Amino acid sequence: MPRRNTHKLSLGPFQLENGLDRYQPICERLSLITQRRSSTPPPAALSIRDRQRAVTRDFIREAAVEVASETGFAAMTIDKVAERAGVSPSTVYRYFADREDLLGAVMAWASEQTRMPRVSSVDDIARVQEQFMADLDANRALFRAIVVSRVGQESTWTGRLQRLDFWRELLEEVTDQLDPEEARLGKAAIVYLTGGLAWLTMADESGLDGTQAGNAAGWAIRTLIADLRARNNKAAAQKRPPADGTGKERSS
Known about the structure:
The protein is mainly α and 252 residues long.
């Protein structure tokens, strides 16, 4: 019986036995990812066994990211992820309870790549969106899969809805004096421009990359906010009690 040609693939400070050369690029990419943005605690805080388990889990998750990017979420299976990672399906199940658990890990990783910076004003929305759309291009295939798939929508809606609620709260600054329907329409237009669907539409229909799409969305958001602010200020002025002949407001 011919001897199996095994070799060790580098995973940061660890080694993984694997006899399949075609999986080495994944390991090398994962090593960079885990050094940069690993979701696991720092290695110094873990035992050697726990560190090995953490790296293996990240390795499998990265394989899932690649499969989802190439095939979409609907076609991502445990078997395909195991094959890409060069491990058995049972190994995948040791680290992820089921397919939904693995999908959740992929979505959590994707969320880490587009973390929202600290904002405090409605005028920050455009700047944040410009950076957000540029960041999406770093993992374009994965985020495309997230935007177009039902799995992606269901998995990201919790965090996404929290972000939308935050934008709506900020927009109160320029809509609190408007008619409720007018305020709702203005918020809806801006909130749409902060989503992945706007990024994907501008990419597919206008050929814009992430930076260009972000600049376009940022310009539109600033224009809308300026218009809403002007309308809001006018509405606030109209609601003030009229002044008397001395130029002072009438007392009630």
